[in-house]
Amino acid sequence: MTKKELIVAGVMSGTSADGINVALVRIPGRRASPARAAAAFDLLGHAEYPYPKKVRSAVLAAMNARQASVADLSRLNFLLGKLYADAILATQRNFGVKVQLAGCHGQTLYHQGEARPFLGRKVAATWQTGEGAIIAARVGVPVVSDFRPADMAAGGKGAPLVPFLDYMMFRDPHVGKIVQNIGGIANLTAIPAGAPPADVFAFDTGPGNMVIDAVTEKLFHLPFDRGGKIAACGKPLDKIIQEILRGAFFRQKPPKTAGREEFGEQFVHDLLRGCRGERKQDIVATATALTARSISEAVRLHVLARKQIAGDARFQELIVSGGGARNLTLLKLLTAELTTLGLRLRLSDEFGLPAAAKEAVAFALLACQTWHRKPSNIASATGAKRDAILGKISYP
Ligand SMILES: Nc1ncnc2c1ncn2[C@@H]1O[C@H](COP(=O)(O)OP(=O)(O)O)[C@@H](O)[C@H]1O
Ligand SMILES: [Mg+2]
């Protein structure tokens, strides 16, 4: 298949259910494989569109498997298709760019990466919603969506998929890098110095913004702690953080994934109960420090101490992306934690990749791979038995 330059829209909406990120990316004609050098694309523009309040509530309700109605889920799929298409069209207008292809992650309603017994068989399952056919029809270009099932069909956990971009962009013959995204959940990709794709590993470190958001909402009636200002006025409750970090998820060895199942409503309920009587800003500071501490503990226990690479990995940098990069208190706490581990914190923006755009860019690259019938899962990151071409294509 010939590989001409392609202009691709990547669309992401994560577990925070805060809204839609769109990135417009130019991908040069040569083969984009993770084995190639960086600068495999140009970011032409990116934009963020918060979900309207009612839509956000509907999305959060849809994630609550026990209450969701099939009719609403079905309608939400088509509604989100329209919203994703509108977001692409608006971004195209703003930047004066016309895309030829789109990759849309969709909104995850349910993710169970491990097979468990169900009706007499063992199944794993995942569900991202946002109808590709609707996006294709409205934008007038082919759309790749539903990326995760093909990796699971190949024996993987269906996540994480962003390591494809991480490896392409950040691999370095001399400097080991940890690429840390702080979305609703926080996850890292570890790329040892000079590593082939098979040595890349990735896992969820625990809560990102999800717990901070929920606590801020409950105590201050705000959707998130803008700039980390509330946490900056508080003092973290160390005892509570230590107790949480003794929990099963944090001790579990990678690969591991987390979601609202681990750090959603129940977790926040227990945290608030444990903090009863404490100052409100101290509780937000505690949630913020929990994210910082869980990241540094994950790095210490599950990256730096790994036997296969200890000594020669030369991990020197941790590169932060995601909405959490805008929480200055979180960054300050994390910087202090990392300094004790001999790591330097950098922002993905320093590498030309705005923190908020990174995951959207990743889905533009994955869509391009699929369009060229190339695989894009990093099998060592997802646990898949083989490389897989990800996603389904809808034509306009
Ligand atoms: N200015 C800001 N100050 C502090 N936190 C912010 C700011 N902007 C975004 N965030 C945080 O980032 C989250 C969204 O991050 P994002 O990377 O989109 O996560 P996800 O991939 O889960 O949707 C918000 O819910 C909020 O907690
Ligand atoms: Mg988001």
Task: Describe the structure using short key phrases.
396 residues; alpha/beta; 15 helices; 13 strands; 39% helix; binds adenosine-5'-diphosphate; binds magnesium ion
What's the number of extended β-strand segments?
13
Q: Measured on Cα atoms, how large is the radius of gyration?
A: 20 Å
The rounded distance between the terminal residues' Cα atoms is 21 Å
Give the overall average pLDDT: 93
Structural class: alpha/beta
Q: How would the blueprint of this fold be written?
A:
Layout: E1 6-12, E2 19-27, E3 42-50, H1 53-62, H2 70-95, E4 101-104, E5 107-118, E6 121-129, H3 132-139, E7 143-145, H4 148-153, H5 163-170, E8 176-182, E9 185-191, E10 201-207, H6 210-220, H7 229-232, H8 238-245, H9 248-251, H10 260-263, H11 265-274, H12 280-304, E11 315-321, H13 328-340, E12 344-347, H14 358-371, H15 379-382, E13 392-394
Parallel strand pairs: 1-4, 4-7, 8-11, 11-12
Antiparallel strand pairs: 1-2, 2-3, 5-6, 7-13, 8-9, 9-10
Helix pairs in contact: 2-3, 6-12, 8-12, 12-13
The protein binds adenosine-5'-diphosphate (ADP) and magnesium ion.
